[in-house]
Amino acid sequence: MHSATHQAIAAVWRLDAARITAVVARMVRDVGVAEELAQDALVAALEHWPREGIPDNPAAWLMTTARRRALDHLRHRKMQDEKLEEVGHDLEAQEALVVPDFVDALDAARQDDIGDDLLRLIFTACHPVLPAEARVALTLRLLGGLTTHEIARAYLVPEPTIAQRIVRAKRALAQAQVPYEVPRGAELAPRLASVLEVVYLVFNEGYTATTGSDWMRPELAQEALRLGRMLAGIAPREPEVHGLLALMELQASRMAARTDAQGRAILLADQDRRRWDPLLVRRGLAALERAEALGGARGVYALQAAIAACHARAPSSAETDWHRIAALYGTLAEVAPSPVVELNRAVAVAQAQGPAAALAIVERLRADPALRRYPWLPGVHGDLLEKLGRGEEARVAFLEASALAGNARERELMQERAERLKGSSSAGVDGSSAGVNS
Q1: What is the domain-level CATH number for residue 377?
Q2: What is the number of structural domains in the chain?
Q3: What letter would DSSP give residue 126?
Q4: Given 194, 263, 286, 389, which residue has the most CB atoms within 10 angstroms?
Q5: Whole-number pLDDT of residue 314
């Protein structure tokens, strides 16, 4: 019984932790304290729900408990009576909501026109007082509820480094007394790049989870999409906002086709394109057009969206314009050089020019220390070796990729590919790609 309750708590927390933290942060004006108070609500649920049962609206229970903790915190700080009364009224309004959507309509009327605590939280965590890498790490932690391990994997850096960044970032925001608000005018641009990067990484974690038993975490991808659409509304003249939104819409259009009925991963070449969402494809292509019309065709996100658009427009993998995709990755490597970009370019080169041309790129990348623990590097390597008929070498590469994989479905995929090659010294081309563009 307790196990089922704990699973329910974990599921609710995973979906709503960011919203709870955001609402509490608006009350206490300190993101570090807000996260602690939200965690207190989680502990309370772990104490009460196994005895008393899961409440009818568990998310509202957690929200109300966290807000009460925040109210207690404000009392202990001996805030002015009028501020305490205002917060108390706000709490009563929240408790009166039967199914809260966590955008407090009563407060929104007397705050700015964004009316979204999550967006305020992102911009607060992305304040210029913090180094860029700290902004991203902190916001990923607060917004997506990602662990330090997941963030470290996303950045290909040691986990203790991420933990230190988060702790120092919270301390710096508190010391600087950073206002909890969405910036306007000239203050928006310096913080927008970090916000876009955060939304992008949260989407990526939803699109392909770094850890756990599921190939995807759709709720994170949907949250990133929602935030991207809001950003496009508040910064309509920023081409990279539309570029990022285009990329996410186009990638999200494939999500229903990326797993089978058992939740197993289906790579891009094997997906049933009839299951791609045509509405999201249209939205993505329209957002890409806006980004390019605003002069942002060479933006980091717009270039990736242009690559996704090549896939979206192609009736099949075989009919995809791989030469254009390889060229776009080449441009992306000029604009934002990265070993991961180069690995993706190798996947496109393999399709456009053959696996031998791509193998030379991948073998150079195997010496790059930044990719030492990156499972898709040996995965792509194995795919190319298999296509070249070097079956045993490919099997070893897939086993290496499986050992590095943090996601159970990713690990399963690599193990299956290795198993198919067991006992063979050569193998035929199966037409699939183990690249990250899945």
Answers
A1: 1.25.40
A2: 2
A3: T
A4: 194
A5: 97
